[in-house]
Amino acid sequence: MSKSLLSLAITAAVLSGCSLIPDYQQPQAPVAAQYPQGPAYSPAEAANQAAAEQGWRQFFHDPALQQLIQTALVNNRDLRVAALNIDAYAAQYQIQRADLFPAISANGSGSRQRTPARMSQTGEAAISSQYSATLGVSAYELDLFGRVRSLSEQALQTYFSSEEARRSTQISLVASVANAYLTWQADKELLKLTQDTLAAYEESYRLTSRSNEVGVASALDLSQARTSVENARVQLARYTRQVAQDENSLTLLLGTSIPANLPSAQPLSADLLSELPAGLPSELLQRRPDILAAEHNLKAANASIGAARAAFFPSISLTANAGTLSPDMGGLFKGGSGTWSFAPQINIPIFNAGSLRASLDYSKIQKDINVAQYEKSIQTAFQEVSDGLAARQTYNQQLQAQRDFVNANQDYYRLAERRYRIGVDSNLTFLDAQRSLFSAQQALITDRLAQLTSEVNLYKALGGGWNEQGSQKAEVSKEAPPLKLF
User: Fold this and answer.
1) 331: Cα separation from own chain's centroid
2) Residues 246, 174, 269, CA angle at the centre, nearest 5°?
């Protein structure tokens, strides 16, 4: 090998390790170091286990809900699309990474041609043959300034982002199934309450009607009793519709029909959920998949800057082949039939009307956009967790007050009924006590549902719902998919 070729090979080897990707700097989290404090929040406590590490089977205690979540994880179409997106981005990464290696191909060809006598130099018709077998490399770019590697890194970070997107989809699905199930159960309890209340109203209406017939109750009393019955019938139709629609919503999330062998549901008043430790805001950076996905997108944008920078420098591509060439098949592999070609090509950008500069500016702007999106995802996560913590403390107080209110209305109802039966008070007082009790019981069920859904949303906001069991830490792979050579 000549000294010039040796120097060229050494230079290419040195430059092949060159990269123009800017050093990645993780942006500072634009949130406070602690969650908000105040009357709406419970005192912060140390956590033995992060919420994200608490498996959904560990967090949700209702066996029926556990079975529904498992069904959704198998059949939900959004989750299936997210998983297929991972495979698609893995394939794109394979395509981009393949450009780092020369594409070697083997070719064989043969041809026979007859030349008529009047077109032949000898004045006689001639038949010519040519056969060849070659092995070659076509248009392989020497990645001297890291352009191809930058594009490969961009594709890899996009692949990692798709993995986090799939994780985020699963966490959202678990929370959505839980909320849909809890809403379904709450509406069924409201339907049962309405049916029982309607039966009580109808019995009261019959008694008032008899009293009116004998002149004890007035027409106004009878009319008031009837309005209670009709209002309860309106509520009955409403909750019947809502229960049916809840089942339809749950079926869509499951991706299949509700299992027939579903265990009996636990009442909303039962201990349905585990307590959640909030931890610190900094933990969200490692736990929330949407934040991690945004960071991978930021890294992908950072890598694209390296590719845009490398476009300013010369690029060298090689095309070469070697093989044999012979006028007949028998001589194709005989001595003296060898052939080769070597065609290097260099491209030096001189004038492009500012296209390369605009491409670099565009890459930098895209990075700035991704920085803002990354910071916004952190702020959104902080806000969702803070809202959940505020809801936890205030809903506990609100529920206790609502239970006391229901108990007070039950005492009021019993006293009003007794006084009405013995003729001390009018029917209007008794009807008012009935309505107040019904309204208070409805509000208690609604408030309990709101408390449970806020806890589910807090679990989701803290990154919970990815693991099935708390003892198993299912982590997203941060390794590139294996390279497939063929």
Assistant:
1) 63
2) 60
